[in-house]
Amino acid sequence: MKQLTLDLHADAPPLLENFVAASNADLLAALYEAIPVADVPQHLFLWGDAGSGRSHLLRSVVTAAAQAGRPACYVQAAEVADTLPEAPTLLLAVDDVEGLGPEAQIALFRAFNSARGQRMTLITSGCAAPLHLNLREDLRTRIGQSLIFEVKALNDDDRLAILNAQAATRGLRLDPDIVQYLLRHGRRDLTSLLRTLDALDAASLERKRAITLPLLREILQRDLNL
Questions:
Q1: DSSP 2
Q2: Core-most of 61, 85, 153, 197, by most CB within 10 Å?
Q3: Is 106 exposed, middle or buried (0-12, 13-18, 19+ CB in 10 A)?
Q4: Other C-beta atoms lying within 10 Å of the C-beta of residue 57
Q5: Each residue of 74-128: pLDDT tens digit?
Q6: What is the CA radius of gyration of the chain?
Q7: Where does 35-71 have alpha helices with state H?
Q8: What is the Cα–Cα distance from 119 to 35, expressed in whole angstroms?
Q9: What DSSP state is assigned to residue 6?
Q10: Global pTM?
């Protein structure tokens, strides 16, 4: 399985193919295995820090299931009232389960109970491992019976490889000191890094000048969202 993909442009839609696996190769493989309908569904629970890619993965596996012809639905826990979608063979992704209210927790518990009979697959995510989630005990137990994966954040070597690969696909030359400065002084999540690279590419073309440290500093100071 490829661990670094080439289509990582910041505005690329969330797909399993454009998630950088790095230390999460087993998790990515499990998500691919969850796409087909199974006689005995295997549920998954993903946990990790904000910005680790949990939402990207849940949205991506729903997209992949829908493209494969399977009913699929993504919901944010904070938007759930007292019901959740249920249908035969549905792949249901519930993001940030710590945001479920009391009635919504009951709805998710019921979805787990009916999943096997309807061959539904539940893929859930949270900010912490099930043991540390502030949820009903019976729901925490159901979630804890899923395959549990920690979504591990990228390290600097991963970020460096991604930036260099992206620069190469665009025909850009990034000196090592530019990349190191960006990793030290810019926002370190992948989306922000790629947006900065977009901005550098655009500025370099507009001004017909090479990418330099002064240009990078100017962009970082100009756009606080990077």
A1: -
A2: 61
A3: middle
A4: 26
A5: 999 999 999 999 999 999 999 999 999 999 999 999 999 999 999 999 999 999 9
A6: 20
A7: 54-67
A8: 12
A9: S
A10: 0.77
Give the position of tokens 């295995």.
33
Model confidence pLDDT, tens digit, residues 158-200: 888 888 877 887 788 888 888 888 988 888 777 788 888 888 8
CA 115/CA 110 separation, integer angstroms: 8
Burial of 58 (0-12, 13-18, 19+ CB in 10 A): buried
**Alpha-carbon distance 69 to 82, whole Å?**
27
- Bridge-partner residues for 93, per DSSP? 74, 123
Asked if 181 and 23 touch (Cβ cutoff 8 Å), the reply is no
User: What DSSP assignment string belongs to 143-197?
Assistant: HHTSEEEE-PPP-HHHHHHHHHHHHHHTT----HHHHHHHHHHS--SHHHHHHHH
